[in-house]
Amino acid sequence: MTVAVIALAAAGCGKSSSESSGGSSESGKYSGKGIGLAYDIGGKGDQSFNDAAFSGFQKAEKEFKISGRDVEPNDNESSADKVQRLEQLAKAGYNPVIGVGFVYAPAVKEVAAKYPKITFGIIDDNTVKASNVADLVFHEEQSSYLAGVAAAKATKKNHIGFIGGVDIPLIHKFEAGFKQGAQSVNPKIRIESQYLTQTPQEGGFSSPDKGKDAANGQIEAGADVIYHAAGLSGQGVIQAAAEHKVWAIGVDSDQYQQSALAKYKDYILGSALKNVGGAVYDLSKSVVEGKPLTGEVRGDLKSGGVGFADSNPKYQAMKDVVAAVDKAKQDIIDGKVTVKTQ
Fold first, then answer.
1. At residue 1, does pLDDT exceed 90?
2. Is the peptide bond preceding residue 169 cis, with omega within 30 degrees of 0?
3. Alpha carbon of 106 to those of 32, 35, 71, 120, 122: distances in Å?
4. Helix crossing, 169-185 with 140-154: angle to 10°?
5. What does the alpha-carbon distance between residue 123 and residue 315 come to, in Å, rounded to a whole number?
6. Contact between 328 and 148 (Cβ < 8 Å)
7. 44-53, pLDDT tens digit by residue?
8. pTM
9. CA–CA distance, 96 with 35 (Å, rounded to integer)
């Protein structure tokens, strides 16, 4: 499928988008123009959250032979910019239209009301209640618990770290699960914890330099395994870990497999996965098949909505770490362990 990069003419609608040239679904049930995907802060190329969404977008395009448009955010944009972006996609006939990230909640609520025949999805928010909206959310604390178990088993100093992009309830879930998982292995383990910014607008999810500085500080303090939940900023965390030859744990995507991080991959112990791509794919599939998902759709360990990536052969060779993570996963699925969210 060919992809051409085009510039959006309307001001405020996004820096650029790519539009692919697929046709309509072979099933005949689907009459939309394709999938509309609007990225969160950091945009495509973050090797994490947004790229996970893009993978689902690509898979749906290919399998259902439909087209799509994915649109980048602007720096320091307003909620009105997001409304305009989603309206442009809906007016053009894209269906579903998906906002990647909780920051789209007000825009999805407003635009979905204007286009009742189009299905809207929002990732990481469950506050928008409408008959044509799917709230695509996850038990991030469960995958973070596995990251904590892995960190506590892999550390040589009984000293680990957590770096969150922005100090908000969503990222608190990552921290809470990570700490609980680590303390299940060693109740006395030392855990550094830091948030890069107080608001998304300050760049907490889009500033690799901030991530690198924070990681350097935690490593200097003695941490030898660092888990980030910081989007694009996490690239800086991983770079710092590699430079100091300590472990990093990635987030959302399998960061060991990301080409932009290839030079650091030997120091990526694993990644706490959030199947954002699967959520985008599943919503697109439901619309194409004429049975759109609506309401809250929450992924967990049992459904495969979250997990822990074990791609690094060095991780696979650490049999005691792998066994501990596998046991923790099964205990959560079986209900023996309930993971905290704050």
1. no
2. no
3. 24, 20, 18, 12, 10
4. 40
5. 30
6. no
7. 999 899 999 9
8. 0.89
9. 5
